[in-house]
Amino acid sequence: MKRRTIQVSSWGTAALVHLVAYLCLAALVKFSAPFSVDRAARDFFQGIQDIAAGWVIRGWAIFGDWRILTVMLILASLVLSRGIKRDFLLFFLLALGGGGALGQLSKVMVGRLRPGDPRFGFPSGHTLAAMVTVIGLLYFAYRSGLLRRPLGVAGSAAGGVFIVLGVGISRMYTDSHWLTDVIGGILLGGAAAAGTVLALERRQVVHGSQFMVQGPAAGNPESRSMNPEPSTMNPQASTLNPKRLD
């Protein structure tokens, strides 16, 4: 219980840090023209359009496509146990759905246009979706026991970072987003994912606390061990012989 409480605190901190950073960036973007770093990144990617691996970079955005991710996640849920499957689907419903809704709202409120498109672009929805998916898959892989060794956790996390950055690079390579759009998608996706995990972990803590207070159901042997009979608490009551009356 103590370990899970620490995890809840860590996820809460992560969600708060990502959200505050996102709001600060959104405020800067709203009241500023594209930054010099945005223009420098755009010039760089426009200058490498003819590289041989260009088709790979363009196609990498598939890992942030909401429709494809939805199908992949539904298929992945089929191999999970019932208890984890419920939280798995709930996580992606809340994190992807809620994060996507917040992203669309931010696009309208911030009002920044894409570099090569008159549509609103902050934050990058593909990058947001990729961030949520990677965090969710890592979380449930660890929770289900698939990831336990530090080397496996580190390798999987590095692979997740590679996927998310690849999606962001793909969106800049196709001139669909500015660099700060991609950073905004990462921050908002991290906030949505960490906030959803926080809600799931808090529910586990509350459920565990209620179980400890109420005890197991009647008829369970543990209920007798948690509520011992008076004779068990005072063994002398059954060993002392009554005094004889003269």
Please tell me about this protein's structure:
By secondary structure, the chain is an all-alpha fold. The chain has one domain: Vanadium-containing Chloroperoxidase, domain 1 (Up-down Bundle). 73% of the residues lie in helices and 2% in strands. The protein has a two-stranded antiparallel ribbon with strand order 1-2. Helix 5 packs antiparallel against helix 8. The chain is globular, with a radius of gyration of 26 Å. The N and C termini lie far apart (59 Å).
Known CATH architecture: Up-down Bundle
Give the overall average pLDDT: 83
User: What is the first-to-last residue Cα distance?
Assistant: 59 Å
Describe the largest sheet: 2 strands, antiparallel
Q: Which percent bin holds the helix content?
A: over 70%
Please state the overall shape, judged from the principal axes of the Cα atoms.
globular
Order of helices and strands: HHHHHEEHHHHHH
- The amount of beta strand, in percent, is under 5%
Tell me the structural class: mainly alpha
Class, according to the CATH hierarchy?
Mainly Alpha
The number of distinct β-strands equals 2
Q: Give the spatial strand order of the biggest sheet.
A: 1-2
Could you list the spans in which at least 5 consecutive residues all have pLDDT below 50?
A: 209-233, 235-246
Task: Tell me the radius of gyration.
Answer: 26 Å
User: Per CATH, what is the topology?
Assistant: Vanadium-containing Chloroperoxidase, domain 1
